[in-house]
């Protein structure tokens, strides 16, 4: 088929998730002609199976806890039960409204939206149901899928997040395989909904990618919430009989449950899409791209979860925007992977940016750290939450890591990312005034202390 004008674009994007649609919107905004190919729903994992539905579940979980804990604040409330059809209706309503808004946005931007499964059939051509879309530039943005372990079939009461998002019942006992972001978020939801929860993690601690102090505090809080967890232990098998799953561990222990949630990470969706045939270098399924999101093939870019690194929606947005600007000749500054904020929305929430203490020691040698306990923060006391803000700085230099834990602390990541990305010294932040009484003050207090002029700090 020859390339006709209506099938030729400045950018052809494969995949309409966070990375792909952000690239399409920014490209159209810059006056480029854009085709966006999507086989499922515009918005991808984040909107339909990830960030948004899980955070709606976590909010419903918080409401359940609030009902349970009213007495603590002198309010007589009782927790009756969780109505999963009501929870799902609320969650689906949120997703539905955002989906409609996003569809309208793409429609309004003269983007050629092509529904169907696409494949890279030449270095500048994506084929969808026999139609060949020729791109002066191609952007690969096909995202990720929930992985399992060898021999562990996802069936019946053995689920990944994809099925667990649509449960119509609250299981009384759940085993969560994996103590990373998705595992601890679901563990938190299930516990608040009334399930007995056990997390199995092969690494020595929960949330092992975070600063060690964060893991310790999370484990303390989970113990208090009666969420069980076993670290340093490997899953060795599972059997399913009727509605019961029996999970075996290499320690010899077995655990019975009504549901096994497999949360062992996400793999790239790249197989069978023609990437390697077109000459694109792929490593264990991931597309390798340089700091300008370029693959080894001229004119082919890759963004989002298929590129090794943090699998986060806002990284995908940023890379998508970056690529559109790069193609438009704006020469955007490269994205610092360490400058991408990370939030885990379990209770208590975790928010961080930059280097952990261990990473900073390795990278910068001499460092200083300071932990500010939320015990001294008025708003955190009002909310009855515990946790801290931990700062890591280069000795006599800028803050290179901010690590926070506590209810609602995710909202503090905005200032933390400015501090890291603008390479602020503790004294720069110490002179900024933080409103009282907010949890944001804890960030201010931590910097006051690290700048040598602590206010409400005992150490
Ligand atoms: C349970 C869960 C919770 C999460 N929570 C958060 C969170 O709170 N915050 C956060 O930042 N991130 C979160 N994430 C991660 C976030 O969802 C991803 O990082 C993000 O969606 C990646 O965007 P992407 O564009 O790379 O891929 P995706 O969003 O996966 O989009 C890829 C798209 O490509 C399409 N596609 C694939 N192959 C083809 C093909 N051959 N032809 C046409 N279309 C194709 C797919 O249908 C899909 O729509 C979560 C993920 C999960 C699973």
Q: How would you describe this structure to a colleague?
A:
The strands form six sheets. Strands 1, 2, 3, 4, 5, 6 and 19 form a seven-stranded mixed β-sheet that branches. A five-stranded parallel β-sheet has the order 8-15-9-10-11. The chain has a five-stranded antiparallel β-sheet with strand order 20-21-24-23-22, with helices on both faces. With 459 residues, the protein is an alpha/beta fold. The longest helix has 25 residues. Strand 10, helix 7 and strand 11 form a beta-alpha-beta unit. The radius of gyration is 23 Å and the shape is globular. The mean pLDDT is 97. The site of flavin-adenine dinucleotide has 36 residues, from helix 1, strand 2, helix 2, helix 3 and helix 8.
Termini separation: 72 Å
The rough form would be described as: globular
Largest sheet at a glance?
A: 7 strands, mixed
Unreliable runs: none
Mean pLDDT: 97
Radius of gyration: 23 Å
What's this, in brief?
The protein is of the alpha/beta class and 459 residues long. It has 13 helices and 24 strands. The model has no long low-confidence stretch (mean pLDDT 97).
Descriptive tags:
459 residues; alpha/beta; 7-stranded mixed β-sheet; 24 strands; binds flavin-adenine dinucleotide
